[in-house]
Amino acid sequence: METSIVGEFSDPRAEALPWERALEVIESAQMFWLSTVRRDGRPHVAPLPAMWLEGGLYFCTGAHEQKAKNIEVNRDVVLTTGTNSFTSGIDVVVEGPVTRETSNDRLARLVRLWKDKLGWEFTVGDGVFLDEGNPDHEAVVFALTPAKVLAFTKEPYSQTRYTF
């Protein structure tokens, strides 16, 4: 991974945010905004939780939902998290391709993360999450492999780029 401060979008006093600090924001966030592109090119954005595990950012959705349909056509997505404050906090943007996660072993680890972080009760089906409250509802799980991550600090204002 390469880390660099983006000078043209940063205060001259700013230094690159260490990756460990950006990762803390990712790992502690409860909500992200997922951006995908529809078949006709229009954007689609939806809030959802995501979990960091071993270099990937995982999220789930129903196979019938718009975001899953968009991913069938274009695997490149963006997950964004941070604050809604202009003057404080750190915002993080994670860009990259997604793949479907179907390993039941990996899904079992992710189920524990969802439970520990959010109290969501999933179980593992055949390559999917099953909702304990609605056993007929299956959720497919996607893994975003970061190609680029941007972190934005507010005081001093800075943009740090991490490329993988």
From TrEMBL:
Which InterPro entries does the record match to this protein? F420H2_bilvrd_red/Heme_oxyg, Pyridox_Oxase_N, Split_barrel_FMN-bd
* Molecular function in Gene Ontology: coenzyme F420 binding; oxidoreductase activity, acting on the CH-CH group of donors
Q: Which UniProt keywords apply?
A: Oxidoreductase
Q: What cellular-component terms does GO give this entry?
A: cytosol
Instruction: Please name the Pfam families in this protein's record.
Output: PNPOx_N
Keyword Oxidoreductase in the entry? The reply is yes
Pyridoxamine 5'-phosphate oxidase N-terminal domain location is 20-149
Name of the protein in its database record: Pyridoxamine 5'-phosphate oxidase family protein
Question: What's the source species for this entry?
Answer: Jiangella ureilytica
